[in-house]
């Protein structure tokens, strides 16, 4: 028979762990409130130097992306061929590129577009994969079989080849605005990446479906959609959140790769990948054209990877 305390907790949308803490009187904080996985994880993260360093870097990049004019007054698209490939100086901290554009200004304004691609693609990938994974994990049977086969079809597509085909199709349609170019890349990355997120969420959903708080909610007459999105989703977020954090940095690097191949972002959008692509033919004669955007890209990806590792260690009790 289901314990009434657990059943009441399930009906109010709480987790099984929190319900047990109420029932047993354990796991409470200083003010008598129950401790959750998220509060324990936050307390652990605040003591991790890796998390603090990564968070500071990411917060700084967000500020740069939102307020680029705070860091440079130069026009990133202003061209002066008389300054072509000039080395760093007091006038231009990172020097000038082939067309005489200020590399520092382009790197600052490129932060916005690079982060926008990473965040947009990560959000769309996780949302699509999470919803499909929850449905497959909860309903099982024919629904799970059909959705899993669809995911396997997309999972079997070569990532780079698929991106080249999709982006070339968009390029032939005459997409010119910077925002449209970003959404084009976001769509291609999300369409090819959601199966991994789906598998992660499906595994978490299958495990959560067997828990007592789900059985209690079902016994109380809760609908399938209420159980999925009110009870199971909050308790399946931990693994997908870790994956999304690491995925964000990976997408920024993938955008740079696609831009280097000539099928990603392009003018008028300015990104680190576009800057690296422009510098590829001048590595020997003007290495600073490649050094600065590549260095910023490396630091950014590393920061998101470090953040993902710290979040994973905090949310997994076995790794503490």
TrEMBL record:
InterPro entries (alphabetical): BP-dependent_transpt_permease, MetI-like, MetI-like_sf, OppC_N
Subcellular location: Cell membrane
Chief subcellular location: membrane
Keywords, comma-separated and alphabetical: Cell membrane, Membrane, Transmembrane, Transmembrane helix, Transport
Biological process, per Gene Ontology: transmembrane transport
The UniProt record lists the keyword Cell membrane: yes
PROSITE patterns in the cross-refs: ABC_TM1
Ranges of residues in domain ABC transmembrane type-1: 111-308
Gene Ontology cellular component annotations, sorted alphabetically: plasma membrane
Topology versus the membrane: Multi-pass membrane protein
Pfam families: BPD_transp_1, OppC_N
Transmembrane annotation, as ranges: 50-71, 113-138, 150-171, 177-197, 240-265, 285-311
Family statement drawn from the similarity comment of this UniProt entry: Belongs to the binding-protein-dependent transport system permease family.
Family matches, as PANTHER family: ABC TRANSPORTER PERMEASE PROTEIN, OLIGOPEPTIDE TRANSPORT SYSTEM PERMEASE PROTEIN APPC
Protein's recorded name: Peptide ABC transporter permease
Organism the protein comes from: Actinophytocola xinjiangensis
Lineage: Bacteria, Bacillati, Actinomycetota, Actinomycetes, Pseudonocardiales
């Amino acid at each position: 028979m289901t314990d009434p305390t657990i059943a009441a907790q399930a009906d109010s949308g709480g987790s099984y762990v929190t319900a047990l803490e109420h029932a047993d009187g354990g796991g409470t904080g200083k003010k008598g409130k129950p401790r959750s996985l998220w509060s324990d994880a936050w307390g652990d993260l605040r003591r991790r130097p890796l998390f603090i360093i990564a968070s500071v870097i990411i917060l700084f990049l967000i500020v740069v992306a939102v307020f680029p004019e705070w860091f440079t007054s130069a026009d990133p698209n202003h061209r002066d061929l008389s300054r072509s490939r000039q080395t760093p100086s007091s006038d231009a901290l990172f020097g000038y590129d082939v067309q005489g554009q200020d590399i520092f200004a382009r790197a600052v304004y490129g932060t916005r577009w690079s982060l926008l691609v990473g965040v947009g693609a990560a959000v769309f990938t996780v949302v699509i994969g999470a919803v499909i994974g929850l449905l497959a994990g909860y309903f099982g049977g024919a629904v799970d079989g059909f959705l899993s086969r669809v995911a396997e079809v997309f999972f079997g597509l070569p990532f780079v080849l698929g991106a080249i085909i999709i982006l070339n199709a968009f390029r032939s349609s005459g997409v010119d605005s910077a925002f449209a170019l970003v959404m084009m890349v976001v769509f291609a990355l999300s369409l090819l990446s959601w199966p991994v997120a789906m598998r992660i969420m499906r595994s978490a959903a299958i495990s959560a479906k067997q828990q007592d708080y789900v059985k209690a909610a079902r016994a109380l007459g809760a609908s399938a959609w209420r159980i999925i999105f009110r009870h199971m989703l909050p308790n399946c977020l931990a693994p997908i959140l870790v994956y999304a954090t690491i995925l964000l940095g990976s997408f920024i690097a993938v955008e740079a790769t696609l831009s280097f191949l000539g099928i990603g972002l392009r003018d008028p959008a300015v990104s680190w990948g576009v800057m690296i692509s422009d510098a590829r033919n001048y590595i020997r004669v003007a290495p600073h054209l490649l050094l600065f955007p590549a260095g910023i890209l490396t630091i950014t990806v590393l920061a998101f990877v470090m953040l993902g590792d710290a979040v994973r260690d905090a949310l997994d009790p076995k790794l503490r």
